[in-house]
Amino acid sequence: MKFESFSFAPEILRAIAECGYQSMTPIQQQAIPAIRRGEDVLASAQTGTGKTAAFALPILQRMCDNPKETMPSNTRTLILTPTRELAAQVADNISAYSKHLNLTVLTIYGGVKIDTQSQKLKRGADVIVATPGRLLEHIVACNLSLSNVEFLVLDEADRMLDMGFSADIKKILQAVNKKRQNMLFSATFSSEVKKLANDMLEKPKVITVDKQNTTADTVSQVVYPVEQRRKRELISELIGTKNWQQVLVFTATRDAADKLVKELNLDGIPSGVVHGEKAQGSRRRALREFVEGKIRVLVATEVAARGLDIKNLEYVVNYDLPFLAEDYVHRIGRTGRAGKTGVAISFVSREEERTLADIEKLIGQPIRRVTVPGYEVGSREVLLKQIEKRRSFAKKQQRGDNAGAQMIAEKNMDGRRVKVGKVSSTVKYKKIK
């Protein structure tokens, strides 16, 4: 289906063509008509499915149908995102869609001077894309009023809840204009997301375009078993021997990310890093150099898992598996986007085999394993049995300790001593006066 089918304004159609869009994706085909009709929308779709255009294009059209002057310290459209990277990406996309319209788009997030944002907010903006925490700061400081919001979008709602923004979102919902159209987009429909939807949406159009927690068919997945201490060697060898040119790598911690970037650069592989302790300017510079091909590897922590949109990205490497199995889907969703193919590689140490099993159960398929000569590790099956045995033993020991802890105030038959507790196998007594 073509975008022309929905009678967008010529200015919007022109921008769509300049973005290189041709046919609509499934989420766009279902969401655009509902939003154009003014319905609330609850949509579940995996990353790379065209979600931003699905809500932005019909909102822009509705704003064109009912033009209004920009009011100081106000906005007509508010879009909430979990991370700075995603906020910047969404704002860039909307700016591209509205480049031939007389509309202003503003991003609001932490990591930059709040005074500069305050000055821009006082002038007002037609569309504001914000992270919840910084937005609340401006609301409390009276830099922004939400009394005239007509369109409210929560993008990556499940991620915002996972990151602890639930209380912030509730405060924002209390401050925003009650007569508005709501759109909630989420990769998954968890119980928390459903509760938020019940509180926020009114008779929503429910859209699900993909089976939850599935990975795109365009992404080829592979696992490399390797000892934790040898992961750094392996990634340098693979990048060098296979001549990978653009690789996004995820680590578990910021410290691990910094160390890996340092080692890769020493190995002659130009690399940059993106994580929460880096200044926003440094993060944007690293991303720009990565996109422009000035560096071959961008190392990131979970903060970037849903916030990066890199066209034609071929390789995503899980240097460390994510703590949550669901985050694996979001990480590898950075590649294989918009119909392009990509490769997702995961380095799995002996200690991460259980996490891998959880991921394979979640996505409903085993992941192909490739052993690199010289990096072999022990048998996976034996290791999983050992892990299960240790877990079972720990549960039995815990049950035994709990039972012992309950044996208090039991009076002995001679009536002179009372059993007051049990620690491991030792029974303690106290004298009765």
TrEMBL record:
Protein name (Swiss-Prot/TrEMBL): DEAD-box ATP-dependent RNA helicase RhpA
Similarity comment text for this entry: Belongs to the DEAD box helicase family.
SUPFAM superfamilies in the cross-refs: P-loop containing nucleoside triphosphate hydrolases
Lineage: Bacteria, Pseudomonadati, Pseudomonadota, Gammaproteobacteria, Alteromonadales
Superkingdom classification of source: Bacteria
Limits of the DEAD-box RNA helicase Q domain: 1-29
Entry keyword set: ATP-binding, Cytoplasm, Helicase, Hydrolase, Nucleotide-binding
Gene Ontology annotations for the cellular component aspect, listed alphabetically: cytosol
UniProt EC number: 3.6.4.13
Segments for region (Disordered): 394-424
The Helicase ATP-binding domain, residue ranges: 32-207
Enzyme class: hydrolase
Catalytic activity: ATP + H2O = ADP + phosphate + H(+)
Organism: Shewanella frigidimarina (strain NCIMB 400)
A GO MF label: ATP binding
Segments carrying motif Q motif: 1-29
GO biological process terms, semicolon-separated: response to temperature stimulus; ribosome assembly
Occurrences of domain Helicase C-terminal (ranges): 218-378
